[in-house]
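Appendix B, Record 12. Input sequence as logged:
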Amino acid sequence: MSTVHFEHLFSPLQVGPMRVPNRICETTNTINSSMTPGLIDEHFIAHHGAKARGGTGWIGGETWLLDVPMPAGSFDEVSLRGGFSSRFAAYQNPAFGESWKKFVDEVHDCGSVVIAQLTHLNACWSPSSVPVIGAQDHTPHMLGEQEIEFLFDTYARAAKVAKDSGSDGVEIHCAHETVGYSFLSPATNRRTDRWGGGPKERIRFVVEALKRIRKVVGDSMAVGIRVNGQESRKGGYDNMELREMLYYIGETGLLDFVDLDVGHCWGAPSYVPSSYYPNGAFRDFGKAAREDLSTLERKVAVLFTGRINDPVLAEELLKGGYCDLVGMVRAGIADPEFANKAQEGRLSEIRRCIACTRCIDEAAEPMTLPYTPLCSINPVIGQELRWKAEYKPAQRAKRVVVVGGGAAGCEAARIAAMRGHKVTLLEEGKRVGGQLLIAMKAPGRDSFEDQVYFEENELARLGVDVRLETRADIAAIKALSPETVVIATGSVPRVPDDVPGLDSPHVVQGWDVMLGKASTGKRVAVVSQEDYYQTPCVAEYLASKGKEVEVFHKSVHLGAEIQRYSIGMMLKRMEDCGVKIHLNVMLSAVQGGALEFVSSWGGKTYRVEGFDSVVLVYGSVPQPQLYNQLKAEGGKMETYLAGGAWVPRRLAEATRHGANIGLII
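Logged structural output:
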């Protein structure tokens, strides 16, 4: 048990009329947990309610997208690029309010509070016809007076639904591709009427929206805004200007809280900071806002968010006066029970978010359909109801052998042991973790080791017999007399069989470079045929060692499967470390120091020379051989194939697959 004393984190806080039981907040995040579009269903309640049961005091749920004044003959627009322009919004359906009330009641039963966030996105509507984001050509319609009035009415109508359903607070989303943000920004608000001008004038839209909400809710609910601490685009506001605008808004006496983060949706910094960002990187912005607002007559609480995944760090921020409340969304996705575990002194049992951002990234741009929420390290996310129904102690404890200590193997062993089975895990390496042990060596990815620590701690706590540096074969498995065997032997790097010269001594695998098993010369060509993080991680690792790195990639841009919140930071890091990127080419031959390429889309060929080493990043191929041998022998053993040994995907898929096997043994 931990001896850490949390003096501030678990103390209550009065925010307007709302009493928050502790300082831990699930700020609003649209993870698309409802399986019933337009309603709050049992999946939504199970996902967000788990955080309330786990001790999170402030539950934000998912944003309410509001209706807009569509012109006659136009089509509604709902797009993955941030567009929502619809004549009808979910809150207008009486069934939505009824289902939201069920959610509120569930959260209240756990002792937590509920805040509803009201959002107008700006892909189609904005104060000026200026591209929503500098790097795009997504240009919205300029709002007229009647349209602005329409938007104010929607805030008021939605606030009434929130009030009638029992919500404790309501906030206007004024950050990141929203209409509220666009009015605050000098980059997107070029108006010369009363809605534009300097900082004191650009707040008028937000102030009027707050007034309309106050007319409906009075002082019966806490009212706040979510804002971006600074823009990261040319012509946008910096933190000093945001502080000025925030103070002017605070002076109106309309605010009870400010929900502050930093960044934007498509570049660096991102307001969903990945592992490439320090924990709480922009905490000083929270402290500045808190100090500014402390001089106002009406008390305004400051909620700060920005990659805070650890309760000890959250306590330090509160103790240091950086904020009054701490946003910990992804901490609660990785482990909905982390707050209770912290309060009970069980810090070693917390599954800490590794900041891979896949949970929020993929909710914004789904890779699979139908989409269900996921977490790379928590297999229950998006499957809460199924786990509640199916997770049961084993009817009879079996002897289980798991071969392979990667994500799939560890999760199979962990869940099986939790259910009462007697589990032995065989791992040929010196440590469990599988490919996490490679990923954590890349610059900015050290947080991936947190998941290795979690698995090590849990396997030890649950009494799993972990045998390291043990290479399993049929005889070794049979010697343990298992009733069930899980083969989680993972995958190995792919080597193409149609490229002459790959057997040259200066051609090596990216995994081997990262693990220190292979070295390179000064000038390195990284040849890539994968579209996620492996290539940039290998390239940056080499650059950090002083190598001159050039990437030759098969596709239209590096990291094509890295989504909106993370792609900007990855590309920025490639620029910052001097990696050169060549696109749309595939390796056709290695001839000494020369490389032959062919266009990915046509027949044109290219030749480059002068490289000392060639590093391959071609993805991986499964290793099911041991499983196939066991199946061929027959016998009475239950035999399962898990994770990358079946088909290489990503961490979340391996985690889920292994855990599912542990659930059904």
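The domain at 495-618 is CATH 3.50.50.60 (FAD/NAD(P)-binding domain).
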